[in-house]
Amino acid sequence: MRIKTFLRQATWLCLTGLIASQNLALASGLQVSPVSLTLQDKNADGIWLSNEGSNAINAQVRVFHWSQRNFQDNLTASRDLVISPPMLTLQPGQRQLIRVIRLGTPTNSVEESYRLSVNELPSATPQSNKLQFVLHYSLPVFIQPRNSGAPEAKLTWGVKRVGNDNFLEVSNQGNSHAQLSAVTYINHQGGRREITPGLLGYVLPGSTMRWVLAPQSANITPGGKLEVMINGQKAVQNL
């Protein structure tokens, strides 16, 4: 059991790019910009990969269709978007533009969602006696709907009790995604309780997502309000 736990923790560290002691680990210099793309009235855009480290980096970029079912994100391999180049080597200080190209003209009435998986590949000649941590980025790509007016997320908020846990549940009946962050609960007396200071997550069109509430937030009940950033804009939502 301890071995399995260690392996899970080691894998998580590699995927998130967390670095251990400088004496034990080789830090990566792979950087990605921007961290999301929205294609509207165009079929192509791009991201920049750069190497800010002191060693050459090999990287791979893949595309996945992104959906949400049963309150979870689901990624499936997709050929709807072409990545060019899909594999590359970056020397220290080098930048490379990665083109993201949609095949055909969008005809969707609801936003389509994808994720770019940018993976640093382990070096073929790692230095001895040092662990090597590689970075993984998962970048959202949104294809805006055509001829349907301004894309909009239409959200319904609630609190659900499942077993011993309380969940914040959000449904999106609009035609565009909602990125949720900086969520604070406000009760009837105006008292405030922070749910999360950073990113809570995304709710895609036609989807419902849940996030478990910490024990200190267990007294959050319907009838209060939530102050939340939705796609970068502050809003107040009724529970």
From TrEMBL:
Keywords: Signal
Signal peptide feature range: 1-27
All copies of domain Pili assembly chaperone N-terminal, residue ranges: 37-147
Gene3D superfamilies: Immunoglobulins
Pfam families: PapD_N (PF00345)
InterPro entries xref list: Ig-like_fold, PapD-like_sf, Periplasmic_pilus_chap, Pili_assmbl_chaperone_N
Name the record gives this protein: Pili assembly chaperone N-terminal domain-containing protein
Organism: Pseudocitrobacter corydidari
